[in-house]
Predict the 3D structure of the following.
Amino acid sequence: MYVKHSQLKLNYSDSDKIWRYIDLNKFKSLIKTSSLFFCRADKFHDDKWEGVFPIRMIQKFELDKKAYPSSNGSTYTACEWQIQKEARSHLINCWHANKSESFAMWKIYSKPNEPSIAIQSTIGRLKLSFNMTKERIWIGEVEYIDFKNWEPQNRFFNVGTPSILKAFFLKWNYFAYENEIRAIINKSYQKHKSEKGIFIKVNLSELIENIYLSSDFNQVDEKKISGLIEKYSYPFPIKKSDLGIRLYM
């Protein structure tokens, strides 16, 4: 279930809209399994800094120098432990915060010449959708920073050791257009042992407010989506994306 975390920033109200852009196969999996996929942090190949401590944090705490023994008999610096151990134990599900559709998100998460779908939810709906799982799930917004020069103002930087969790809510400012909201699970790799991530059961009726179809959906594909939703007795409104629709001739 959703658990509030004091160190995570979330300056959104429960009514604020969030979006998840997915391809047709992932949508079918979502409807059939009622499950969201949480990806291991070390499997996000588009960002090599995923879960890495900012440079000034590394310097202040000497995270790349001090080594500590582990239960497996090896020694690790904090940086090595974060990358080799914590990154595969932190599992992430990503959303885009926006009042309306995003052209950039459609482009990034759509496959060429294939229809795609946007799931529109809200912060509050996302929280409630996790009530049926026993996993502890934190939700926060990503902070976009300069990893070379950034120094945080809040207390997690000013205590004896930095927050491991907080590092998974920091990204390079180059990604600021994502307006990302993250749901994260911290589950030992020895417990989940997944190569890519895990599926978490959710209440889809709570989660989904609207379903948006990309502008390249044809009537046949639209009927398939409608049929799939009806088969599982969901009442989700289906809307066609405004992007790509010609408003006049």
About this structure: The chain has one domain: 17-240. The radius of gyration is 20 Å. Residues 17-240 form one domain. Confidence is low (pLDDT under 50) at residues 245-249.
